Amino acid sequence: MIIKPIATNVITGFLGVGKTTLIKRLLANKPQGEKWAVLVNEFGEIGIDAALLGGNQSGDSSEVEIREVAGGCMCCAAGVPMQVAINQLIAKAKPDRLLIEPTGLGHPREVLKVLSEPHYQNVIKLKSTLCLVDARKVSDSRYREHEIFNQQLDVADIILATKSDLYSDNSLTELASYLATTLETSIVPVSLNDSNSLPERLLLQLDKPTARKPSQLVKKASALTPRTSVFEVDFQADQLEFDERGLISKRNAGEGANSCGWIFDPSYEFNFDELLSWVKSLNLLRFKAVVITDEGIAGINCIEGELSVVELDDVMDSRVELISLDKIAAAEIEAKLLSLSIRLSF
After folding, report:
1. What is the pLDDT of residues 157-178, one digit of tens each?
2. In the chain, where does DSSP find H-type helix?
3. What number of helices (H) and strands (E) belong to the chain?
C-alpha cells in the first residue's frame, strides 16, 4: 500500500548525452536509508542500460531497484508498456523516489502525460524534470531541427549542459542563445566524467515540484504518432530463444533512427583489444555493449567517436547495440562481431 506519493523525476535528453551516467552519480549520492527505483527505456530492442546502471554500483545495491523497457518509446501504445512497468516496479520496490529515463528518441510530453493521469495522483508526485544536452549539438541541424530534441528542452524544469569539458569557448553561449529564442531558463554546465563536477545542490533540485501545469504537459501530444506494433510484448521476464549459433538479433526503426542489436549466449568470449579497435573505427550515432571478453566483463559506450569502457561484475550474456541515423549493414556487422569472438566449451 502506498502511504505517501512517490517523488518522481523524469531525466530526459537525446541519445548518448549522459543520462545513464548522471543516474549512476545520483544513485551513488542518494540519502542513506532511502529506497530508490529506476525505470530505463531504450530505443533498441536488446536492453543494455540496466546492466550498465547496475555494474559496480556504489552504496547498498539492495536499496536500488532497476527495471528496463526496451524497443522504443515506452509511452506509445496508449502508455500501456510504461504503466505496466511502473506498476510492477512500484509494487516490488516500494521506493521513496522513482527516476524515469525515457529513450533519447522518446516523447517526453507523452511520458509526463501518463504520469499525470488521475490514477497516479495518489501514487506519484511529479518533481523536477531534468534535460541533459550536449551544447555542441545545437550547431548541428540534425539535432536543432529534430522534434524530439526540442521537445526535451521544452518540457524541462532544469537543463544540464553535459560534457562541458569538451566545449569550445562559445559552446555554452550558442546553447544559451538557442534556448533564449523559445525558453526562459538557466543552464548548469556539468562534466559527468569529473568526480567533483556534480553540484551537491542537484539532489536538492530534484525535490522541486515541476513548473509545468497539466495543460502544458500534454500540449501538442495529439500530433505524436505512436508505433503500437513495437510494443506487443510480454513485460514479464525475458524469454530468450537463441538460434543454433547461440545468437538473438533484433532491429528497430523510428524518429529518423535505426538500431540493430545482438545477444550472444554466455559461451561467447570477445577479444577485448580487437573489439575496442573496431568500435573506434565505426561511424555511428551510438554503440553500446556489455560483453564477456578475454580480459573480463566490459561495459562499452561509444557516442560519435567518444569511447568509454567500464568494468562490470557479472552478466548473464553478451549484448551489443548500434544506433545510427543512417541504414545499418546488419549482416556485415554481425559477421564482424562473430570474427571478434570465439565460443568456449563448458
Report:
1. 888 888 888 888 888 888 888 8
2. 19-28, 49-54, 80-93, 108-115, 141-144, 147-155, 171-180, 201-205, 214-217, 272-281, 330-339
3. 11, 16
